[in-house]
Amino acid sequence: MELSWSTFLLEIINFLVLVWILKRFFYRPLQDVIARRQRGIEERLAKAEEMQRTAQELQKKYQGRLEQWQAERQQAREVLENELKAERAQRQAALQQELAQQREKAAAMEQRRQRDQHRKLELQALEQGSQFAARLLERAAGPELEERLGEMLTDAIEELEPSQLQQLRAQLTERDTVAEVASAFPLAPEQRQKIEALLQEVLQRQLHCHYVEDPELVAGLRIGVGGWELDANVRDELHGFARLAREPAGD
Amino acid sequence: MDGGELFPSALFRLGPLTVTSTVVTTWAIIAVIGLTCWLLSRQLQTRPGAVQTLAEGVVTAIEDAIGAVAPDHVKMLLPFIASLWIFLVIANLCGLIPGVHSPTRDLSATAALAILVFLSVHWFGIRSQGLRRYLHHYLTPTPLLLPFHLISEVTRTVALAVRLFGNIMSLEMAALLILLVAGFLAPIPILMLHIIEALVQAYIFGMLALIYVAGGLQSQMLRQQRKENSDAEGEQR
């Protein structure tokens, strides 16, 4: 255990050389690589932080936009609900109006139906009355009735107004010189004379009467001169009664 | 460990210097380390492989150890302290190779390292604060402690050298004695102890060196902090 100064000195030099070698080929290159990697990591971290910041800004922006969209959606929904309420109210009013119209129409139709029904019953009653009267008068018809109806006809002619008589005369032409007198039963000579006298007096012209028998008249007379025809017989009266029944009430 | 040479022998002379087996072994260690580092430095990449990861792990671990003791001077102390640790680990483990002796079983080598530590303490202290302010710390807290400071400097340097030398030499001697007494393969448990002891001694030597250097640096820092605090208090008053 002795100290060798040569070894002591050489070992100092050796160690200093070793320090230089390690510093040159080990520590510095490794520290450079580590620093380079650290810089890369820091750059990536900075990029990541930048991306995160951008993402947060975007998130904030989209959050704001989303809130704005929600507000707009809420507003649009309220507008739509108001429009729907207004539309519903309008349609309800229109429906109510249409219902009222339909109700009125139905009431009018019901009224008309009742009126038609009433009219139908009335017509049926008149038809039945006409038929009953026709059957009754057919059985009761005879020369006496015919004479009586002839008297009614002559009375009616005599009671015509002057204007009506004037109108009758104006309707006749020069060729209308024959009067056709139809009766259900043969007329007596005095009846024929009376009718001819009456016609000549009323029409103020010379007429020749042509007498025919028509059993269908049941009883009474029918006098035709030119375009005119004067009736006083059961058949035409019953027909007139039936026609009157068929005519509308307001006519 | 052939057992033939307990103490290093002179191999040849280089001018006035005698080259012993210790120096030759140290040269071989430096050559291996240098070649390895050179090859490694040519293959460094940002994405490290297994060897580069191991190397970075070693450097980072040493940086952390220095940072725990002297956080403000990691970059300055790293080459010296890390070189001590790396060299001592390899030098101490060299004794496991048959026919090779650890350089650290030679008191001349350990004394050289201890002297380097002694000089580096003053070198780093003077470099960071200047000669006058550095020497001033021997007079604190009172000039009466100056002899004790000086004795401490000498004794701790001697202790560094002798501790490493004594441990490594005693390991090799114990293995040699067991080999002589018990025969072949008997010293294997001692070799296991050699590995542990080599690592522990390397760690102790490097850590003590770090503590001595950091102590010199931090004594300056403590004085600076005290002065700054007293100045601040004076301004407040």
Automatic annotation (TrEMBL), chain A:
The chain crosses the membrane at residues 6-27. HAMAP family: ATP_synth_b_bprime. This is ATP synthase subunit b. F-type ATPases have 2 components, F(1) - the catalytic core - and F(0) - the membrane proton channel. F(1) has five subunits: alpha(3), beta(3), gamma(1), delta(1), epsilon(1). F(0) has three main subunits: a(1), b(2) and c(10-14). The alpha and beta chains form an alternating ring which encloses part of the gamma chain. F(1) is attached to F(0) by a central stalk formed by the gamma and epsilon chains, while a peripheral stalk is formed by the delta and b chains. It is found in: Cell membrane; Endomembrane system. Residues 41-119 form a coiled coil. The gene is atpF. GO terms for cellular component: endomembrane system; plasma membrane; proton-transporting ATP synthase complex. Belongs to the ATPase B chain family.
From TrEMBL, chain B:
GO terms for cellular component: plasma membrane; proton-transporting ATP synthase complex. GO terms for molecular function: proton-transporting ATP synthase activity, rotational mechanism. It is found in: Cell membrane; Membrane. The chain crosses the membrane at residues 20-40, 77-101, 107-126, 173-192, 198-217. Its main location: membrane. GO terms for biological process: proton motive force-driven plasma membrane ATP synthesis. Keywords: ATP synthesis, Cell membrane, CF(0), Hydrogen ion transport, Ion transport, Membrane, Transmembrane, Transmembrane helix, Transport. It holds the Pfam family ATP-synt_A. PROSITE patterns: ATPASE_A. It is a multi-pass membrane protein. Key component of the proton channel; it plays a direct role in the translocation of protons across the membrane. NCBIfam families: ATP_synt_6_or_A (TIGR01131), PRK13420.1 (NF009954). Belongs to the ATPase A chain family. This is ATP synthase subunit a.
